[in-house]
Write a structure and sequence with these properties.
The complex is a heterodimer of chains A (236) and B (256).
Chain A lengths: L17 E5 L7 E7 L2 E12 L12 E8 L15 H14 L11 E11 L4 H15 L8 E9 L2 E4 L3 H4 L6 E9 L5 E4 L7 H29 L6
Parallel strand pairs in A: 4-5
Antiparallel strand pairs in A: 1-2, 2-3, 3-5, 6-7, 6-8, 8-9
Helix pairs in contact in A: 1-2, 2-4
Chain B lengths: L2 H12 L15 E5 L7 E7 L2 E12 L10 E6 L16 H16 L9 E3 L3 E13 L4 H15 L1 E5 L4 E10 L7 E8 L2 E4 L3 H4 L4 E7 L5 E7 L6 H19 L3
Parallel strand pairs in B: 4-6
Antiparallel strand pairs in B: 1-2, 2-3, 3-6, 5-6, 7-8, 9-10, 9-11, 11-12
Helix pairs in contact in B: 2-3
Classes of the chains: A alpha+beta (236), B alpha+beta (256).
């Protein structure tokens, strides 16, 4: 068996269509919308602001706090029970780690920057879409940043490595699947998110990281263009 | 809110306008967009000014409640997402979310919007259950009216998934819509001093003396009421507020 043609006809190194916007939530200090295929993520940034309870304060550095939530009606199939389950908490934690290297909160001791990621519609790749939206929202909020981060999941479907798994590929039944979400820091090419479930050879992992870098540089351009668009001067 | 801000809002009201330039009984621009989601069985996005609310409907096959063995069930839930307002915190729904959910629920239930008998698959064993979740994306005031509008529009947008008597196939949507009848519209009237306004912004919401949410059917029959705010109302106040609610509900109904 071999995965010769992708379910939706994409090339193996092609992401689904992407739509990105910033400044979509008026109340937030920074916000973004990131859609990849049918997966939609909103991110809102609030802060730097006071942190409660007070024992969480760090007098040496500002704190980053991320939250990840799927809306109850977001997935195909049964309603998702609201509230942070174990999965949501873990994703929030790895999202935090993916974003930490790109921001600099040294100027904001005892404060917190909150990042809220909400998914109104999901079709795999939600943590990656959330990280892409969050990176844009942090920039939109004017948080001091050293870099941007983009994220995509690489999959091994049967014998092929593919970029940006959708749900039909994630649940591919004619062979085995490995899902490898990766986040790449734009200028340095460093990896700030790496997870994997499934079986994978050391060689394939190398290739997967290379593919993620390629795809993320394309996503990075889309993110930057969306940010520039908000601050474009319109000559009329 | 401090005295200066209260005076600021009141000074405008004395001149017959709102601090944002609106008339007292004027809504901000309203937009209703149906079907933003392909995964939900029904969905709608409502914007009122800068307030933006999503509502999504999921359907499932469940056991009926023992007291209505031949009736489908409905549940309405509000998640006040911390993404939508700096004052909302993560965690289970607080009293504000519960109140909105219960008022919207009463409007739909008491107007008998849904013919629940038609949701019965097998008496006493299997019925369709309608689960509606309301998620604000940006809270710029008046979540009551925006939520009711979003829920009703999402119910109108709902299509049953296919069901073979055993399992629900969510990937296959049928062309069958929900058995809807009369639909409620919500109009929340605010009293500040002796002024009555509709569609409050958060600045005005912080300042209210009292609030009356009026849920109205098409013929003007009231189907749910909820008084809020710390100050009492006179019978005359209530009559006036209900009058405004019924009148404004005609405008809102055009979006259904």
């Amino acid at each position: 068996m071999s995965y010769t043609k992708r379910n939706d006809g994409r090339k193996f190194d092609e992401t689904r269509p992407i739509e990105a916007k910033v400044g979509v939530i008026k109340n937030a200090d920074g916000s973004a919308y990131f859609k990849i295929g049918k997966t939609v993520a909103y991110a809102a940034v609030y802060g730097p602001r006071g942190i409660h309870p007070k024992f969480l304060q760090n007098p040496k550095n500002g704190k980053l706090r991320c939250f990840y939530n799927m809306m109850p009606f977001s997935s195909m199939g049964e309603r998702v029970r609201p509230g942070a389950n174990r999965r949501a908490k873990e994703i929030a934690m790895v999202t935090e780690k993916a974003l930490l290297p790109i921001i600099d909160l040294i100027e904001f001791p005892n404060s917190v920057v909150d990042v809220f990621i909400e998914l109104p519609q999901t079709d795999a790749g939600t943590r990656c879409a959330g990280i892409c939206a969050a990176s844009m929202a942090l920039a939109d909020a004017g948080i001091p940043m050293k870099d941007m981060v983009a994220s995509v999941s690489i999959g091994r479907v049967d014998d092929k490595l593919v970029v940006d798994l959708d749900y039909s590929e994630e649940s591919y039944e004619d062979g085995t699947v490995a899902d490898i979400p990766i986040a790449v820091i734009s200028r340095t090419g460093e990896i700030s998110l790496l997870q994997m479930d499934g079986k994978l050879s050391r060689e394939d992992l190398k290739k997967a990281i290379e593919m993620a870098k390629q795809a993320c540089s394309k996503i990075d351009k889309i993110q930057r263009d969306a940010l520039k668009k908000k601050y474009e001067v319109k000559n009329e | 809110m401090n005295r200066e801000q209260k005076d600021y809002i009141l000074n405008f009201l004395e001149q017959g306008v709102r601090f944002d330039g609106r008339k007292l009984e004027e809504y901000r621009p309203i937009k209703v967009e149906r079907g933003f989601s392909e995964n939900a069985e029904g969905s709608a996005k409502v914007t009122i000014g800068n307030t933006e609310v999503l509502a999504g409907v999921k359907l499932s096959v469940d056991e009926p409640y023992p007291d209505t063995p031949d009736g489908g069930t409905m549940m309405i839930n509000v998640e006040l997402l911390p993404l939508s307002n700096p004052n909302f915190e993560p965690g289970p729904p607080g009293i504000q979310a519960i109140e909105i959910a219960r008022v919207v629920d009463r409007g739909i239930r008491e107007s008998e919007s849904i013919d629940t008998k038609k949701l019965c698959i097998k008496k006493g064993e299997k019925v369709w259950s309608i689960l509606v979740d309301i998620c604000p994306i940006n809270d710029d005031g008046n979540l009551f009216d925006a939520s009711t509008l979003a829920v009703v529009a999402a119910l109108q947008n709902t299509k049953f998934p296919s069901y073979n008597g055993n399992i629900v196939d969510y990937k296959k949507k049928t062309k069958e819509s929900l058995p809807l009848r009369k639909l409620p519209v919500s109009c929340t009237v605010i009293k500040i001093d002796n002024y009555f306004i509709v569609d409050p912004t958060p600045e005005e919401e912080k300042k209210i003396d009292s609030r009356l949410t009026v849920e109205v059917e098409e013929d003007g029959t009231l189907c749910a009421l909820q008084k809020g705010g710390d100050k009492p109302l006179t019978a005359e106040d209530i009559d006036k507020m209900v009058g405004i609610g019924i009148e404004k509900s005609k405008e809102l109904r055009k979006f259904l």
